[in-house]
Amino acid sequence: xxxxxxxxxxxxxxxxxxxxxxxxxxxxxxxxxxxxxxxxxxxxxxxxxxxxxxxxxxxxxxxxxxxxxxxxxxxxxxxxxxxxxxxxxxxxxxxxxxxxxxxxxxxxxxxxxxxxxxxxxxxxxxxxxxxxxxxxxxxxxxxxxxxxxxxxxxxxxxxxxxxxxxxxxxxxxxxxxxxxxxxxxxxxxxxxxxxxxxxxxxxxxxxxxxxxxxxxxxxxxxxxxxxxxxxxxxxxxxxxxxxxxxxxxxxxxxxxxxxxxxxxxxxxxxxxxxxxxxxxxxxxxxxxxxxxxxxxxxxxxxxxxxxxxxxxxxxxxxxxxxxxxxxxxxxxxxxxxxxxxxxxxxxxxxxxxxxxxxxxxxxx
Length: 364
Known about the structure:
Elements: E1 8-26, E2 29-43, E3 48-53, H1 58-75, H2 82-92, H3 100-120, H4 125-128, E4 134-140, H5 152-161, E5 167-171, H6 177-191, E6 196-200, H7 207-216, E7 224-226, H8 234-243, E8 248-250, H9 257-265, E9 271-272, H10 276-279, H11 281-295, H12 305-312, E10 321-323, E11 337-338, E12 341-344, H13 356-361
Parallel strand pairs: 4-10, 5-6, 6-7, 7-8, 8-9
Antiparallel strand pairs: 1-2, 2-3, 4-12, 11-12
Protein backbone atom coordinates (compact mmCIF):
# COMPACT_ATOMS: atom_id res chain seq x y z
CA UNK A 1 0.00 0.00 0.00
CA UNK A 2 1.37 3.41 -0.94
CA UNK A 3 1.28 5.77 2.04
CA UNK A 4 -0.62 8.99 1.52
CA UNK A 5 1.37 12.22 1.34
CA UNK A 6 0.15 15.77 1.32
CA UNK A 7 1.94 18.93 0.19
CA UNK A 8 1.23 22.31 1.73
CA UNK A 9 -0.18 24.66 -0.93
CA UNK A 10 -1.86 27.67 0.69
CA UNK A 11 -4.02 28.87 3.55
CA UNK A 12 -7.25 30.83 3.69
CA UNK A 13 -7.94 32.71 6.91
CA UNK A 14 -11.22 34.44 7.75
CA UNK A 15 -12.62 36.10 10.86
CA UNK A 16 -16.19 35.99 12.10
CA UNK A 17 -18.02 37.33 15.14
CA UNK A 18 -20.77 35.00 16.32
CA UNK A 19 -23.50 36.34 18.65
CA UNK A 20 -23.70 34.47 21.95
CA UNK A 21 -27.04 33.16 23.16
CA UNK A 22 -25.90 33.89 26.72
CA UNK A 23 -23.37 36.74 26.99
CA UNK A 24 -20.12 35.99 28.77
CA UNK A 25 -19.98 38.04 31.98
CA UNK A 26 -16.85 37.38 34.04
CA UNK A 27 -14.02 39.09 35.84
CA UNK A 28 -12.29 39.64 32.50
CA UNK A 29 -15.23 41.49 30.96
CA UNK A 30 -18.51 41.11 29.09
CA UNK A 31 -18.74 39.57 25.62
CA UNK A 32 -21.93 39.61 23.55
CA UNK A 33 -20.21 38.33 20.40
CA UNK A 34 -17.48 35.72 20.09
CA UNK A 35 -14.65 36.20 17.57
CA UNK A 36 -13.40 33.16 15.68
CA UNK A 37 -10.53 32.81 13.22
CA UNK A 38 -11.34 30.17 10.58
CA UNK A 39 -8.42 28.39 8.90
CA UNK A 40 -8.54 26.37 5.69
CA UNK A 41 -5.23 24.66 4.90
CA UNK A 42 -5.18 23.70 1.23
CA UNK A 43 -2.94 20.97 -0.17
CA UNK A 44 -1.80 20.28 -3.73
CA UNK A 45 -3.58 16.97 -3.52
CA UNK A 46 -6.94 18.70 -2.99
CA UNK A 47 -7.42 17.81 0.68
CA UNK A 48 -8.42 20.75 2.89
CA UNK A 49 -7.72 20.77 6.63
CA UNK A 50 -9.82 23.00 8.87
CA UNK A 51 -9.49 24.50 12.31
CA UNK A 52 -10.52 27.59 14.20
CA UNK A 53 -9.11 29.79 16.95
CA UNK A 54 -10.95 31.65 19.72
CA UNK A 55 -8.85 34.74 20.54
CA UNK A 56 -11.47 36.42 22.79
CA UNK A 57 -10.87 39.93 21.40
CA UNK A 58 -11.77 41.17 17.91
CA UNK A 59 -8.55 43.14 17.53
CA UNK A 60 -6.54 40.07 18.53
CA UNK A 61 -8.30 38.08 15.83
CA UNK A 62 -7.22 40.62 13.22
CA UNK A 63 -3.64 40.51 14.51
CA UNK A 64 -3.45 36.73 14.30
CA UNK A 65 -4.37 36.53 10.61
CA UNK A 66 -1.07 37.93 9.21
CA UNK A 67 0.91 35.72 11.59
CA UNK A 68 -0.86 32.62 10.29
CA UNK A 69 -0.30 33.74 6.71
CA UNK A 70 3.41 34.34 7.32
CA UNK A 71 3.87 30.89 8.87
CA UNK A 72 1.89 29.33 6.02
CA UNK A 73 4.06 31.01 3.40
CA UNK A 74 7.13 29.41 4.97
CA UNK A 75 5.48 25.97 4.69
CA UNK A 76 4.44 26.25 1.03
CA UNK A 77 5.69 23.29 -0.98
CA UNK A 78 6.70 21.29 2.08
CA UNK A 79 5.11 17.99 3.12
CA UNK A 80 2.22 18.39 5.55
CA UNK A 81 3.97 17.11 8.68
CA UNK A 82 2.61 19.00 11.69
CA UNK A 83 5.26 17.94 14.20
CA UNK A 84 8.00 19.13 11.85
CA UNK A 85 6.13 22.33 11.03
CA UNK A 86 5.44 23.09 14.67
CA UNK A 87 9.12 22.77 15.48
CA UNK A 88 10.05 25.09 12.61
CA UNK A 89 7.43 27.62 13.69
CA UNK A 90 8.73 27.58 17.26
CA UNK A 91 12.33 28.06 16.17
CA UNK A 92 11.36 30.87 13.81
CA UNK A 93 9.93 32.81 16.75
CA UNK A 94 12.96 32.70 19.05
CA UNK A 95 13.60 36.42 18.62
CA UNK A 96 9.95 37.41 19.19
CA UNK A 97 9.15 34.83 21.84
CA UNK A 98 7.41 31.47 21.75
CA UNK A 99 4.32 32.56 23.63
CA UNK A 100 1.37 34.82 22.91
CA UNK A 101 0.04 35.39 19.43
CA UNK A 102 2.95 33.68 17.68
CA UNK A 103 2.24 30.36 19.41
CA UNK A 104 -1.50 30.82 18.89
CA UNK A 105 -0.98 31.22 15.14
CA UNK A 106 1.22 28.12 14.98
CA UNK A 107 -1.37 26.17 16.97
CA UNK A 108 -4.12 27.04 14.49
CA UNK A 109 -2.06 25.78 11.57
CA UNK A 110 -1.10 22.67 13.52
CA UNK A 111 -4.73 21.73 14.15
CA UNK A 112 -5.60 22.24 10.48
CA UNK A 113 -2.62 20.10 9.39
CA UNK A 114 -3.65 17.20 11.60
CA UNK A 115 -7.19 17.48 10.25
CA UNK A 116 -5.88 17.32 6.67
CA UNK A 117 -3.79 14.22 7.38
CA UNK A 118 -6.66 12.39 9.06
CA UNK A 119 -9.01 13.34 6.21
CA UNK A 120 -6.52 12.03 3.66
CA UNK A 121 -6.43 8.76 5.58
CA UNK A 122 -10.27 8.69 5.69
CA UNK A 123 -10.12 8.37 9.46
CA UNK A 124 -11.55 10.40 12.33
CA UNK A 125 -8.72 12.25 14.05
CA UNK A 126 -9.07 10.16 17.22
CA UNK A 127 -8.69 6.96 15.17
CA UNK A 128 -5.77 8.42 13.20
CA UNK A 129 -4.05 9.09 16.54
CA UNK A 130 -4.58 5.49 17.66
CA UNK A 131 -7.87 5.71 19.52
CA UNK A 132 -11.54 5.32 18.68
CA UNK A 133 -14.69 7.36 18.22
CA UNK A 134 -17.38 7.54 20.87
CA UNK A 135 -18.68 9.61 23.80
CA UNK A 136 -16.64 11.95 25.99
CA UNK A 137 -18.01 13.07 29.40
CA UNK A 138 -18.74 16.78 29.31
CA UNK A 139 -19.92 19.59 31.52
CA UNK A 140 -21.99 22.50 30.22
CA UNK A 141 -20.05 25.75 30.31
CA UNK A 142 -22.57 27.83 28.37
CA UNK A 143 -23.75 30.03 31.22
CA UNK A 144 -23.87 30.67 34.98
CA UNK A 145 -21.70 33.74 34.64
CA UNK A 146 -21.49 36.64 37.10
CA UNK A 147 -25.07 37.55 36.31
CA UNK A 148 -27.86 38.44 38.77
CA UNK A 149 -28.41 35.77 41.42
CA UNK A 150 -32.13 35.65 40.68
CA UNK A 151 -31.46 34.31 37.16
CA UNK A 152 -29.16 31.42 38.12
CA UNK A 153 -31.71 28.78 39.10
CA UNK A 154 -33.69 28.88 35.85
CA UNK A 155 -30.50 29.06 33.81
CA UNK A 156 -28.96 26.07 35.60
CA UNK A 157 -32.04 23.96 34.89
CA UNK A 158 -31.94 24.98 31.22
CA UNK A 159 -28.24 24.12 30.95
CA UNK A 160 -28.80 20.63 32.33
CA UNK A 161 -31.62 20.10 29.84
CA UNK A 162 -29.47 21.09 26.85
CA UNK A 163 -27.84 17.67 26.81
CA UNK A 164 -28.90 15.75 29.91
CA UNK A 165 -25.77 17.11 31.56
CA UNK A 166 -24.61 15.81 34.92
CA UNK A 167 -22.09 18.62 35.45
CA UNK A 168 -22.09 22.42 35.07
CA UNK A 169 -19.58 25.23 35.39
CA UNK A 170 -20.44 28.09 37.75
CA UNK A 171 -18.47 31.33 37.81
CA UNK A 172 -17.61 32.69 41.24
CA UNK A 173 -15.72 35.66 42.64
CA UNK A 174 -18.52 38.10 43.36
CA UNK A 175 -17.77 41.06 45.61
CA UNK A 176 -19.14 39.31 48.70
CA UNK A 177 -18.57 35.76 49.89
CA UNK A 178 -22.27 35.64 50.82
CA UNK A 179 -23.17 36.14 47.16
CA UNK A 180 -20.94 33.28 46.03
CA UNK A 181 -22.58 31.04 48.61
CA UNK A 182 -26.01 32.21 47.46
CA UNK A 183 -25.07 31.40 43.85
CA UNK A 184 -24.09 27.86 44.80
CA UNK A 185 -27.34 27.40 46.77
CA UNK A 186 -29.42 28.70 43.88
CA UNK A 187 -27.87 26.33 41.38
CA UNK A 188 -28.02 23.32 43.68
CA UNK A 189 -31.62 24.11 44.52
CA UNK A 190 -32.48 24.02 40.82
CA UNK A 191 -30.55 20.95 39.67
CA UNK A 192 -30.04 18.90 42.84
CA UNK A 193 -26.96 17.55 44.56
CA UNK A 194 -26.27 14.89 41.93
CA UNK A 195 -25.21 17.44 39.31
CA UNK A 196 -21.53 18.21 39.74
CA UNK A 197 -20.36 21.81 39.91
CA UNK A 198 -17.01 23.07 38.66
CA UNK A 199 -16.31 26.68 39.62
CA UNK A 200 -14.17 29.22 37.78
CA UNK A 201 -12.88 32.50 39.22
CA UNK A 202 -11.35 33.62 35.89
CA UNK A 203 -8.20 34.82 37.67
CA UNK A 204 -10.36 37.39 39.47
CA UNK A 205 -8.86 37.35 42.98
CA UNK A 206 -5.58 38.57 44.47
CA UNK A 207 -3.81 35.81 46.40
CA UNK A 208 -4.87 37.00 49.87
CA UNK A 209 -8.53 37.17 48.88
CA UNK A 210 -8.28 33.80 47.15
CA UNK A 211 -6.92 32.17 50.31
CA UNK A 212 -9.80 33.55 52.36
CA UNK A 213 -12.50 32.90 49.76
CA UNK A 214 -11.44 29.38 48.78
CA UNK A 215 -11.08 28.26 52.39
CA UNK A 216 -14.57 29.60 53.06
CA UNK A 217 -15.94 27.62 50.08
CA UNK A 218 -13.92 24.48 50.72
CA UNK A 219 -16.87 22.60 52.23
CA UNK A 220 -19.30 23.23 49.33
CA UNK A 221 -18.62 19.97 47.50
CA UNK A 222 -17.32 21.67 44.35
CA UNK A 223 -15.38 19.61 41.83
CA UNK A 224 -12.59 22.18 41.55
CA UNK A 225 -11.49 25.77 42.04
CA UNK A 226 -10.39 27.00 38.62
CA UNK A 227 -7.91 29.86 38.25
CA UNK A 228 -8.72 31.84 41.39
CA UNK A 229 -5.58 33.99 40.89
CA UNK A 230 -3.42 35.22 38.01
CA UNK A 231 -2.39 32.26 35.88
CA UNK A 232 1.37 32.80 36.24
CA UNK A 233 1.48 32.97 40.06
CA UNK A 234 2.70 29.39 40.46
CA UNK A 235 3.85 29.98 44.04
CA UNK A 236 0.35 31.12 44.95
CA UNK A 237 -1.21 28.13 43.24
CA UNK A 238 1.17 25.82 45.08
CA UNK A 239 0.03 27.27 48.38
CA UNK A 240 -3.65 26.92 47.49
CA UNK A 241 -3.18 23.34 46.31
CA UNK A 242 -1.42 22.42 49.57
CA UNK A 243 -4.00 24.01 51.84
CA UNK A 244 -7.33 23.23 50.19
CA UNK A 245 -9.36 20.04 50.13
CA UNK A 246 -11.11 21.07 46.89
CA UNK A 247 -8.88 20.32 43.86
CA UNK A 248 -7.19 23.31 42.25
CA UNK A 249 -7.56 23.51 38.47
CA UNK A 250 -5.37 25.52 36.10
CA UNK A 251 -3.81 25.26 32.68
CA UNK A 252 -5.87 27.13 30.09
CA UNK A 253 -3.04 29.69 30.00
CA UNK A 254 -0.16 27.25 29.66
CA UNK A 255 1.87 28.36 26.65
CA UNK A 256 3.33 25.10 25.45
CA UNK A 257 3.94 21.75 27.19
CA UNK A 258 6.96 23.07 29.11
CA UNK A 259 4.69 25.47 30.99
CA UNK A 260 2.58 22.52 32.09
CA UNK A 261 5.72 20.70 33.19
CA UNK A 262 6.88 23.69 35.27
CA UNK A 263 3.48 23.94 36.96
CA UNK A 264 3.49 20.25 37.88
CA UNK A 265 7.04 20.48 39.22
CA UNK A 266 5.89 23.38 41.43
CA UNK A 267 2.90 21.41 42.73
CA UNK A 268 0.71 24.24 41.44
CA UNK A 269 -2.46 22.25 40.87
CA UNK A 270 -4.31 18.98 41.24
CA UNK A 271 -5.63 18.86 37.67
CA UNK A 272 -4.93 20.66 34.40
CA UNK A 273 -6.97 21.89 31.43
CA UNK A 274 -4.79 22.90 28.46
CA UNK A 275 -6.21 25.20 25.82
CA UNK A 276 -5.47 24.07 22.27
CA UNK A 277 -4.51 27.49 20.92
CA UNK A 278 -1.99 28.02 23.72
CA UNK A 279 -0.66 24.54 24.42
CA UNK A 280 0.40 24.11 20.79
CA UNK A 281 -2.53 22.59 18.93
CA UNK A 282 -2.75 18.83 18.54
CA UNK A 283 1.05 18.41 18.61
CA UNK A 284 1.42 20.43 21.81
CA UNK A 285 -1.54 18.65 23.41
CA UNK A 286 -0.05 15.21 22.78
CA UNK A 287 3.23 16.25 24.44
CA UNK A 288 1.43 17.89 27.37
CA UNK A 289 -0.97 14.96 27.86
CA UNK A 290 1.99 12.58 28.06
CA UNK A 291 3.61 14.70 30.78
CA UNK A 292 0.37 14.87 32.77
CA UNK A 293 -0.30 11.18 32.25
CA UNK A 294 3.13 10.22 33.54
CA UNK A 295 2.40 12.26 36.67
CA UNK A 296 -1.11 10.82 37.05
CA UNK A 297 -2.70 14.27 36.75
CA UNK A 298 -6.27 14.45 35.37
CA UNK A 299 -6.51 16.35 32.06
CA UNK A 300 -9.61 18.32 31.08
CA UNK A 301 -10.17 20.59 28.09
CA UNK A 302 -10.69 24.32 27.61
CA UNK A 303 -12.77 25.49 24.63
CA UNK A 304 -12.51 23.83 21.17
CA UNK A 305 -14.89 20.98 22.07
CA UNK A 306 -14.76 19.32 18.64
CA UNK A 307 -10.99 18.81 18.29
CA UNK A 308 -10.62 18.47 22.06
CA UNK A 309 -13.12 15.59 22.12
CA UNK A 310 -10.96 13.64 19.66
CA UNK A 311 -7.91 14.24 21.84
CA UNK A 312 -9.67 13.18 25.01
CA UNK A 313 -10.21 9.78 23.36
CA UNK A 314 -6.41 9.32 23.26
CA UNK A 315 -5.44 11.03 26.55
CA UNK A 316 -4.38 8.63 29.30
CA UNK A 317 -5.76 10.67 32.22
CA UNK A 318 -8.73 12.20 30.39
CA UNK A 319 -11.12 13.87 32.83
CA UNK A 320 -13.81 16.33 31.66
CA UNK A 321 -14.54 18.07 28.38
CA UNK A 322 -15.70 21.68 28.61
CA UNK A 323 -18.66 22.09 26.26
CA UNK A 324 -19.78 25.33 24.70
CA UNK A 325 -21.83 25.79 21.55
CA UNK A 326 -20.18 29.08 20.62
CA UNK A 327 -18.85 27.86 17.27
CA UNK A 328 -21.99 25.87 16.39
CA UNK A 329 -23.60 28.68 14.34
CA UNK A 330 -20.84 28.50 11.71
CA UNK A 331 -20.53 24.69 11.65
CA UNK A 332 -22.29 22.63 9.01
CA UNK A 333 -23.00 19.78 11.44
CA UNK A 334 -22.28 20.33 15.15
CA UNK A 335 -21.39 17.29 17.23
CA UNK A 336 -24.22 15.47 18.96
CA UNK A 337 -24.84 15.51 22.71
CA UNK A 338 -26.07 12.33 24.37
CA UNK A 339 -26.68 11.80 28.07
CA UNK A 340 -24.13 14.36 29.24
CA UNK A 341 -21.51 13.34 26.67
CA UNK A 342 -20.23 14.90 23.48
CA UNK A 343 -20.08 12.18 20.85
CA UNK A 344 -17.06 12.06 18.53
CA UNK A 345 -18.60 11.27 15.13
CA UNK A 346 -17.33 8.69 12.66
CA UNK A 347 -16.34 11.35 10.11
CA UNK A 348 -12.88 11.91 8.58
CA UNK A 349 -10.56 14.38 10.26
CA UNK A 350 -11.78 16.50 13.14
CA UNK A 351 -15.30 16.26 11.76
CA UNK A 352 -15.97 19.95 11.21
CA UNK A 353 -17.02 21.80 8.05
CA UNK A 354 -18.11 25.39 7.65
CA UNK A 355 -21.66 26.54 7.02
CA UNK A 356 -20.57 29.03 4.36
CA UNK A 357 -23.82 31.00 4.45
CA UNK A 358 -23.39 31.55 8.19
CA UNK A 359 -19.69 32.41 7.73
CA UNK A 360 -20.70 35.13 5.27
CA UNK A 361 -23.42 36.39 7.60
CA UNK A 362 -21.09 36.73 10.58
CA UNK A 363 -18.01 37.92 8.70
CA UNK A 364 -15.98 40.42 10.70
